[in-house]
Design goal:
Shape of chain B: globular
Largest sheet of chain A: 5 strands, mixed, barrel
Structural class of chain A: alpha+beta
Strand content of chain A: 35-45%
Number of helices of chain A: 3
Strand content of chain B: 25-35%
Helix content of chain B: 10-25%
Distance between the termini of chain B: 96 Å
Number of domains of chain A: 2
Strand order of the largest sheet of chain A: 1-2-3-5-4
Order of helices and strands of chain B: HHEHHEEEEEEEEEE
CATH class of the largest domain in chain A: Mainly Beta
Oligomer: heterodimer
CATH topology of the domain at 71-237 in chain B: Lipocalin
Order of helices and strands of chain A: HHEEEHEEE
CATH class of the domain at 71-237 in chain B: Mainly Beta
CATH architecture of the domain at 71-237 in chain B: Beta Barrel
Largest interface: A-B, 54 and 57 residues
Shape of chain A: globular
């Protein structure tokens, strides 16, 4: 199998066999750069939320063990996709505390593929598998 | 006799040249008559394709929506990872490509897919009907397909393009679209190349008031040993509009010349020195 197909198949399998998400992943790129072997979590403060194509980006300030702060980047679905599933450009605001569940980068750099996020009050923000707001 | 022969030969050449010129002119400059009130009224008698449509995500296709071919709709894996029956020559080509395949297709660099892939995107499509033309606006990559239903012929030698040159006609309640002339930059699926003889036939029809069936048949005498057929089922969303999709707006993904995929993780508006 080609690397492209492997990556796309992986994307399909990862999201609980949801064809929708596999299709979504196939629209722009596959998952070659992400380590999809495990889901990781990280907590921090939203620095900015880019409501842009072809992907939204959540930039998260995270305390590191050295007493400093690192900015992590998480790639999300497009505003077109999310906008029809309850998200707006204001769903995440600078200063919001969230815990992000994500696939990390294979090369270990500070970022990954956004899967879900949780606020301190327990509210969960889901990108994949959400139903559209209109039939 | 010789003189006459030469005269006739010259006449023949002139006539041939004129005919060739004329046919080129017809192909490139088909003049659509100005639409009449009757042309506009005739649109109301066609099936209502207008509005915004999308392949339902994660939902099984409606059971009642069987395409004309009789087989079950495949908004499924077989659609995403089609099995192409290739000719030996193209099977060998594909094998060579697979040996050194890139980690991502060029879409990671914002190059749109061509036909048929552009019609299989997880984003909506808007259909517009005007006299002599059906226009499909695809949200993914902000693309437009023009389908001429004004009786013009397919061009004999079209310039290759991503979506080809398309003409259509109504076969009862089915819009039948033929397309030719595809860019070598496009593929039949993610990676399989096609020849300049690829043709695509699409049959669009409503299976209930808000459900559209699209049956797509790709033929290519050089690349495909058997036609490649897919079925898609789309649902209409009356409250949706097509949104902008400018892929270059903030594309942090890339696939480089060596085929390696990557992401630019530099935070916006700040230098990496912030991260300590």
């Amino acid at each position: 199998m080609t690397r492209i197909l492997k990556s796309a198949v992986l994307a399909a399998v990862i999201f609980a066999g949801s064809i929708a998400t596999a299709r979504s992943a196939a629209a722009h790129h596959g998952f070659a750069v992400f380590d999809t072997s495990s889901r990781r979590t990280i907590s921090g403060t939203v620095k900015s939320f880019e409501w842009t194509n072809p992907h939204t980006w959540v930039w998260l300030d995270v305390h590191n063990p050295n007493g400093g702060v690192d900015t992590w980047g998480f790639e999300g679905m497009s505003p077109n996709f999310l906008g029809r599933r309850g998200w707006t450009r204001n769903t995440l605001k600078p200063g919001d505390q969230i815990t992000v569940t994500y696939f990390g980068m294979k090369d270990g750099s500070k970022g990954g593929s956004f899967l879900t996020a949780k606020r301190p009050n327990g509210e969960e923000l889901v990108m994949f598998g959400g139903n559209t707001t209109d039939e | 006799m010789f003189k006459h022969g030469k005269y006739f030969l010259n006449c023949f050449i002139a006539a041939f040249a004129l005919t060739a010129l004329a046919s080129v002119a017809v192909a490139q400059n088909f003049k659509r008559p100005a639409p009449t009130p009757a042309d506009w009224a005739a649109l109301a008698k066609l099936p209502d394709f207008t509005g915004v449509w999308e392949v339902p995500m994660g939902a099984p296709p409606p059971a009642a929506s069987k395409p004309a071919g009789g087989s079950s709709p495949t908004s499924s894996f077989s659609d995403l990872f089609p099995h192409l029956t290739l000719t030996p020559a193209y099977a060998a080509k594909l094998k060579a490509l697979q040996a050194d395949a890139p980690q991502d297709p060029s879409t990671a660099n914002c190059l749109p897919p061509g036909m048929p892939g552009i019609m299989g995107q997880p984003y909506p499509y808007e259909f517009l009907l005007t006299p002599g033309q059906v226009t499909i606006v695809g949200e993914a990559f902000s693309i437009i397909r023009h389908i001429y239903t004004d009786g013009r012929p397919l061009p004999a030698d079209p310039d290759p393009s991503f979506f080809g040159t398309s003409i259509g006609h109504w076969d009862g309640d089915t819009l039948v679209v033929e397309s030719v002339g595809f860019s070598p930059l496009t593929t039949i699926d993610f990676i399989t190349p096609h020849s300049d003889k690829m043709r695509i036939l699409e049959r669009f029809r409503l299976t209930d008031p808000d459900t559209m069936s699209i049956e797509t048949t790709v033929t290519d005498p050089e690349a495909l040993a058997a036609p490649f057929v897919t079925h898609r089922i789309l649902r209409r969303h009356r409250s949706w509009t097509i949104a902008e999709y400018i892929c270059e707006e903030n594309n942090r993904n890339f696939v480089d010349r060596s085929g390696k995929a990557g992401i630019n993780l530099t935070p916006p508006g700040s230098s990496q020195t912030d991260s300590k």
